[in-house]
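Subgroup meeting minutes
Present: P.N., E.W., G.H.
Scribe: E.W.

1. P.N. recapped why we're keeping a running log of single-chain structure predictions: easier to compare across weeks, and new members can see raw inputs and outputs side by side.
2. G.H. added today's entry (225 aa).
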Amino acid sequence: MDANAIAILGGTGDQGLGLALRFARAGRPVVIGSRKLERAQAAADEVRAAVPGADVAGLDNADAVRRAPIVILSVPFEHTAATLKAVRGSLAPEQIVVSMGVPLASSIGDAAARTVGVWQGSCAELVASLVPDGVQVVSAFQNVSAHRLRALDHEVECDVLVSGAPAPRKAVMALCALVPGLRPVDGGPLANARIAESITALLIGLNARYKVAEGIGIRFTGLPS
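Output recorded in log:
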C-alpha cells in the first residue's frame, strides 16, 4: 500500500473520474477501481492522456482498495451496498472510506431533485454500517460538480462539507487542498452527512431551473480564514 495513494471506486463515472484527474494533476498516485477491469484501465488511460506523467492505475475494485489508505466511494446510491459487500474483505483497519453517495430519488425512478429515506439516516451512515470494524467512514465531495472537476484549466469554486470522526475528517479535509478552488469545511460528526446529502438534491434542482450545465457549487460566508 502506498501511503500517498488515493483509490477511487467508481472512478469511471463523471464525478469519480473528475477527482482522479484533479488528484493526479496534483501529483498524487491514483488508483481507479471498477467492477469491470477494462473500464478501470480505460479510465486510467484517459487520466494519463489529460495529465502526462500521471501515476495512475486501473484495477478491479477489490485490488484498488488494497492499494491506498483512503478509498473514495463514487458509485450511484443504488450500487453502494453491493460495492461495499464485494470489497469488504479487502478493507483493513485504519483505512478511511469516503462516502460521496446521495440517496437521490432517481435510484427508484423518481426525480433526481428529491431524496429517499435511508434507515441509517444517510448514505454515509449506511456505508459505516457495512464496513469492517476499524475502518473509518467520512462524508465528503457530494456537492462538487463533475463538470467543474473535469475542467482542469479552471478552479472548481466550491466548499466541501466533510463529516466524520475528527482524525479521519482532518485527513480528508487535506485532500481538498489538492484541488484549486475547493475549500474544506468542518462538517462535524458523520450524522451531519444527512444535511450535506440533501443539499445535492437542491443543487440538482437549481441547475435545472437556472440552466447551469456546468453545475452550481456552494460557498459558506463568514468562515475564518
